[in-house]
């Protein structure tokens, strides 16, 4: 009787480790995607300065 319970618990434990591994792999994928998105979104100070200058020039033209 104890052997059956032990085997069942070992199977459950093994399946839990498999799920844990898959979750870890997915988290790594999501972190990589997040870093890629951050790299695309990052605006350098030079770009921001140029954008603000363009906006100021546009305001002067419309007035």
Question: Top keywords for this entry?
Answer:
single chain, 63 residues, mainly alpha
Word description of this protein:
The chain is an all-alpha fold and 63 residues long. It has one domain. Helix content is 92%, strand content 0%. It contains two helices and no strands. The radius of gyration is 27 Å and the shape is rod-shaped. The mean pLDDT is 90.
Q: From N to C, what is the helix and strand string? A: HH
Strand count, sense and barrel status of the largest sheet are: none
Estimate percent helicity: over 70%
Q: What is the average per-residue confidence, as pLDDT, rounded to a whole number?
A: 90
Instruction: Estimate what percentage of residues fall within beta strands.
Output: under 5%
Instruction: Specify Rg, calculated over alpha carbons.
Output: 27 Å
Task: Give the class from helix and strand content and strand pairing.
Answer: mainly alpha
How many helix segments? 2
- The rough form would be described as rod-shaped
For the record, the count of structural domains works out to: 1
Distance between the termini: 89 Å
For the secondary structure, the number of strands is: 0
Ranges with pLDDT <50 over ≥5 residues? none
